[in-house]
Automatic annotation (TrEMBL):
The keyword Repeat applies. The gene is cysE. This is serine O-acetyltransferase. The keyword Repeat applies. It catalyses: L-serine + acetyl-CoA = O-acetyl-L-serine + CoA. It comes from Aliarcobacter trophiarum LMG 25534. The lineage of its organism: Bacteria, Pseudomonadati, Campylobacterota, Epsilonproteobacteria, Campylobacterales.
């Protein structure tokens, strides 16, 4: 079902929506310099504005015309947004190149989406088959959010992650497939450098495990280290790390 936020934003005139879309880069891009930049350096803004026009036409029954507008927009902005998608207010596509938003996607207010993101489907069946993105979500570059799943409000999706299950609100999802880390209190939309690197942690564990096993095999040599003690410390670190990762397999 269409969220209350999307229903509310449809009461705003098209011109009011476009004016608001033009103001979004000032709030989300530290590189923003002047309104002149918007006309030449922000394809994401134009992709959203073109979508607004196409969506209004689509909802009034002019499906072919709306698809034509979407096609022209896609050619110039390198961004593919289906006119049937539901997009709320102050949504910003930063750089935007390569963004794909499927027909049954729902994006609520104040969402930040980086280049190369796909909101795609995993089924050929009719009906809701694309994601629902709640308010204040940040989706990192190259991420794939697939299927009829929900990304909870204030959550972050790490760059190049593949998300195929629901993400609770105030959470971070990273990896392939994405694993969910709860209790994310970070509010900075641009703090991508603070997202955990799951692959790095797993490789670190494996390397240390191999080192312990090698020392165990060579224990006849002079070794002053306590292998059992090191193994217990490593096991504790590994278990603490795994407990921090909650894979949401529902829905």
């Amino acid at each position: 079902m269409m969220s209350e936020e999307i229903i509310e934003q449809e009461k705003i005139s098209l011109w009011q929506q476009i004016k608001e879309d033009f103001s979004v880069p000032k709030l989300n891009d530290p590189a923003f310099d002047s309104n002149f930049d918007i006309f030449f350096n922000y394809p994401g803004v134009w992709a959203i504005i073109n979508y607004r026009v196409a969506n209004r036409l689509y909802n009034k029954g002019f499906e072919k015309l709306s698809r034509a507008i979407s096609g022209i927009s896609s050619f110039f902005t390198k961004t593919d947004i289906h006119p049937a998608a539901k997009i709320g207010r102050r949504v910003f596509l930063d750089h935007a190149i390569g963004v794909v938003i499927g027909s049954t996607s729902i994006i609520e207010d104040d969402v930040l989406i980086y280049q190369g993101v796909t909101l795609g489907g995993v089924s050929l069946n009719k009906g809701k088959r694309h994601p629902t993105i709640k308010s204040n979500v940040v989706i990192g570059s190259g991420a794939k959010v697939l299927g009829n799943i929900t990304i909870g409000s204030n959550s972050k999706i790490g760059a190049n992650s593949v998300v195929v299950t629901d993400v609770p609100e105030n959470s971070t999802a990273v990896g392939v497939p994405a694993r969910i880390i709860r209790k994310d209190a970070k509010k900075d939309k641009l703090a991508h450098n603070e997202l955990p690197d799951i692959n790095k942690e797993m490789f670190k564990y494996l390397i240390e495990r191999i080192s312990i096993l090698e020392n165990s095999v060579k224990k006849e040599q002079d070794c002053n280290c306590d292998i059992n003690e090191k193994n217990e410390v490593l096991e504790k670190e590994y278990n603490d790390f795994i407990e921090a990762l909650i894979v949401n397999k529902k829905g």
